[in-house]
Amino acid sequence: MPHQPINIGIAENDRLEIAAGLARFLADSYTLYLKTHYYHWNVTGPMFNTLHLMFETQYTELSLAVDLIAERIRALGVFAPGTYQEFAKLTVIPEDNHVPKAQDMIKNLVAGQEAVVRTARSLFPLIEKAGDEASADLLTQRIQLHEKTAWMLRSLLE
Known about the structure:
By secondary structure, the chain is mostly helical. The protein has one domain: Ferritin (Up-down Bundle). The protein is built from six helices and no strands. Helix 1 crosses helix 3, helix 2 runs antiparallel to helix 6 and helix 4 runs antiparallel to helix 6.
C-alpha cells in the first residue's frame, strides 16, 4: 500500500535536511541526558546533595525534551534515531571513560549544554529558509533552557 504523501508546505528535500539536523540535535540531547544521569548516580564530595538533586532535575527535563525532538522528526516524515550506535555517530558530545570529580562533572555539563545550543543554532538558516516555524519554535525553547542551565552550572564554578 503506497504511503500518503506529506504536504505540509515544506519541500521534501528541506524536510529531509531539517530532519537530519534534528537527528544530530536529538543525539546531542540524548547523550547529554545520559551523561547527566550518569553524573547524578556517581557524584561524590561536599556538593553531593546539591549536585545530585540538580542533575536529577536536568536529566528529567532532558528525558521529556528528547521525546519532543523525536516526535518533530517523525512529523517531518522521517524515522528518529534511537540506538547508542546512531547517537554515537551523530553527537558532538564526548563520552566519559571514567567517573570525573564533581567540579569536572560541572565543567563537562556546561560544555555539553553549550554544545547542544550550538547544534540547535546551526539549524536555523535551513529552518528559516524552509519556513519551518514548528521546528524553529522547538529549537528556540530548547536554546533558552540550555543557555539557562549552562549559566546555572557555570555559577557553581565561581
